[in-house]
Structures are given as structure tokens and as C-alpha cells.
Write a structure and sequence with these properties.
This is Glutathione transferase GstA. The protein is an alpha+beta fold. The protein has helices spanning 12-21, 43-46, 66-75, 90-112, 122-139, 152-161, 175-185, 188-196, 212-217, and strands at 2-5, 26-29, 54-56, 62-64, 199-202, 209-211, 224-225.
Length: 227
Amino acid sequence: MKLYMHAAACSLSPHIVCRELGLDIELVQVDRQSHRTSKGEDYLAINGNGYVPALMLDDGKVLTEGPAIVQFLADSVPHGASLLPAVGDLRRNEVQSYLNFITAELHKPMVLLFNPIYSSVHDEIRALVSKRLAWLNSRLTGPYLTGDAFSVADAYLFVCLNWSPWTDIDLKQWPALHGFMARVAARPKVREALQAEDLEAFDADGGYFAPHAYLASAGRTGEPVRP
């Protein structure tokens, strides 16, 4: 399988899931401006929307949208129930509920905070995101979203919250979420994914990871720390 991705983007979520499940995956970088892949392909011919992730199966079929991809990956192997409970188990629906919440209430508005076109309403967007994070913080009573078991929703949440320092959102005001980030970042397979995408943390920020070029352009200082 091929996973079309940008480093540290939402495609990191299915990348983490593949690592957690031990799935063999080929990472294919997509250039945001040209929509050409690292293999010379026209990415718009693969995913007409132009954004990542996209998962190309061995038979050439393509699946898009991160929440759908991570569920497919978990369902593709018998031990995938460790990340997504089986159909008929209410815990599966709880994970799906969190996937929907993250994609609609966190992912989309946080992406807008990167876009200068929406700068006039960034304060309002940030206030909305903060409200959702406060709710999520109150729900996170265990190590992970649905309790003791790491799920595909936790991988997705980790990726979105990883953007916090670059959207002027300080997770330290929500201790449960701040602890969640450190806990997920310490998982061996998550660290493998961070290493594979060549991401770094700067000690001024703790456990938040980004490509070196992005950290430098954002004026981050400190010694880069590799996972």
C-alpha cells in the first residue's frame, strides 16, 4: 500500500495507525504547490481534491479522507480490533464519534488558523477551538479517549493537537490534553512514525513535532530533539 502524505500533516494519523498495526506501507510525499508526488505522479489524478491523505491499495484502488482510511486499516487485519473494536461493539461507535468530532470540530477550524485569508476571524476561530478543547479535556479521564486502550481516534487527536503551538493555542491550560500529548508521543510506534517523517521537537515547546524548515521559518529557537 502507498500512503500519500505531507510531513506532520493529518496524513500522520494513518501513518501512525499503520505503524501500530505493523502494516507495510510506502510513504509518498506530495508537494503542496505543484501537486506532484515524490515519485513524479500527478497527485490530482489520484485525489482530485488535492489534499492528503490518500491510501492506494495494492490493486490500485484509492481511499481518501483520514477517518475512513484509519478505520479501513484497522479492519484490514485481525488484530486491528486493538485500535478499533469490532462492529456491534458500542466502543466502536464511541471511537467513530470521536473521529467525527475531531474532523469537524478541531481539524477543520485549526487548519483555518494556518491560513492568512481568514486572519480577520482567527480570534473567533481560536475561541471556538478552545471551547471544544475544554470539553474534550473534561472527557479525558483515562490515558486515552475511550479509556485504557489506544485507538485510531487517539492517533488523529494527537496529530491535530500537535499543531497547537503554531496556531497560538496553549494546551497547558488543559492538563489532561497536555498529558495526553506526552503519553502518545512516548509510544514506540508513534516515535517511529515521527522519525520516518523526519520531524523534530524543540525543547522550548516540549513534545510538539514539525519539520525543521517549518520550525525555523516560525522563529522557533532551541536545540532540535529527534524522537
